[in-house]
């Protein structure tokens, strides 16, 4: 049972739906896994819970992540 965890900034449900579909297809094709055995977990992080180079995401200029 493949489990994929994705950490990312918030995205639309449409984008996550498409990504989950493609990841599932890739596991089925490459590993021969049954599609219904593939699990995808999305962990979304906002700028108040992330930092880069010692600077909090919420303090960074938009687009410079």
Tell me the layout of helices and strands.
Blueprint: E1 3-8, H1 13-31, E2 39-44, E3 51-52, E4 55-56
Pfam families: Tautomerase
Protein name: 4-oxalocrotonate tautomerase family protein
Family: Belongs to the 4-oxalocrotonate tautomerase family.
What value does the average pLDDT take? 92
Q: Numbering strands along the chain, what is their spatial order in the largest sheet?
A: 1-2
Discrete helix count = 1
Question: Which H/E pattern describes the elements?
Answer: EHEEE
- Point out poorly predicted stretches: none
Radius of gyration: 15 Å
Note the main sheet.
2 strands, parallel
Helix/strand structural class: alpha+beta
Based on Cα principal axes, name the global outline.
elongated
Report, as a whole number of angstroms, the end-to-end distance: 33 Å
Strand elements, count = 4
Give the helix level as a range of percent. Answer: 25-40%
| Beta-strand content | 15-25%
Pfam families: Tautomerase
Protein name: 4-oxalocrotonate tautomerase family protein
Family: Belongs to the 4-oxalocrotonate tautomerase family.
Domain 4-oxalocrotonate tautomerase-like: 2-56
């Amino acid at each position: 049972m493949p489990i994929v965890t994705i950490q990312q900034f918030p995205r639309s449900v449409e984008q996550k739906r498409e990504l989950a579909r493609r990841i599932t297809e890739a596991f089925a094709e490459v590993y021969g896994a049954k599609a219904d055995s593939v699990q995808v977990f999305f962990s979304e992080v906002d700028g108040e819970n992330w930092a880069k180079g010692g600077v909090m995401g919420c303090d960074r200029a938009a687009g410079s992540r």
